[in-house]
Specification:
There is one protein chain. The chain starts with 11 loop residues before the first strand and ends in a 12-residue tail after the last strand. The chain has one domain: Aminohydrolase, N-terminal nucleophile (Ntn) domain (Glutamine Phosphoribosylpyrophosphate, subunit 1, domain 1). The longest helix is centred in the C-terminal third of the chain and has 18 residues. It contains six helices and 13 strands. Strands 1, 4, 5, 6, 7, 8, 9 and 10 form an eight-stranded antiparallel sheet that branches. A five-stranded antiparallel sheet has the order 11-2-3-12-13, with helices on one face. By secondary structure, it is an alpha+beta fold. Helix content is 30%, strand content 30%. 40% of the residues are buried. The C terminus is likely disordered.
Length: 217
Amino acid sequence: MSIFVSRRYPYVTGTSVVALKYKDGILMAADMAASYGSTLRYKSVERMKSIGKHSLLGASGEISDFQEILRYLMSSCKFSLYDNMWDDGNSLGPKEVHSYLTRVMYNRRNKFNPLWNSLVLGGVKNGQKYLGMVSMIGVNFEDNHVATGFGNHLARPILRDEWHENLSFEDGVKLLEKCMRVLLYRDRSAINKLQDDNVQAPLFLLNSIDSVNGPLV
């Protein structure tokens, strides 16, 4: 008998991640709640993480599976180690990381032991903005704005109506805040404590837990 047991249901989960392109980079936002079933158990869980020099990863779904994905991606693992060993001054960009995550999610799905996450991957490399997502079974796409969970139903219609290619940073932040406010009102798992991050060419800016927004009212 295999020592590995397939988990059929997630236990501790995070809700929606919303991200969009603006004229200089990528904006991404998620709240910091993690629910145990329908119980709001944790209120300071970071669900976004910088990956390398160019990429930002956000996740909804099972928190422990997201931590496993981060272990795949961190420097102690082969993914980043092989990239650094070339020592050619180049590093993996968001498109490469997105492709890798697609393979990881699809591989686990084929083993009937999926990672229970929907992932959002955004970044800027060589002046090119990239934003895509991957589902728990490896379905993936690239778009100008993406959302996971209830955000697909509640935030995407707002983004379709109000997003445009020349969106400024300030207007992008306001648009994200509008989406997160709607999610707070309509999603029982959402809270008013947010983590919001910005990837901007040629700089990478990751706002840590110290810059969490105030309450949405």
